[in-house]
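Task card 7
Instruction: Convert sequence to C-alpha cells.
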Amino acid sequence: MKVLHVSVEQDEGWFIAQGLEEPGVITQGRTLDEIVTNVRDVISLMFDRKDVDIELLLSSRLDVGRRRMPARRRSAGGSTGRKSKRAAA
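Output:
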C-alpha cells in the first residue's frame, strides 16, 4: 500500500492540502475530514487507485480549535488516551 504525505495549510477558514510525493494532488476543504475525502477522490481520479494511506502533515499555524473538528474517535481496539475515573483513583 502506498502512503501519500499531504501538507495542510490554512487560509481564510479553508484548509488547503497538497501531496508531497504527488504535487499535482491539491484540494481544499472546510474540515480535515473533508480534506481526507477530497484527497482520496483526487487520487482515485488522477491515478485510478484506492489503496493509498494518507498522512496529513499539519502546519503549526493551523487554527483547528475554532474549526468544525470531529470529536476524537476511538479506534478499533485502541484507546482515546483518556483515563477512566477508576484508573485515576
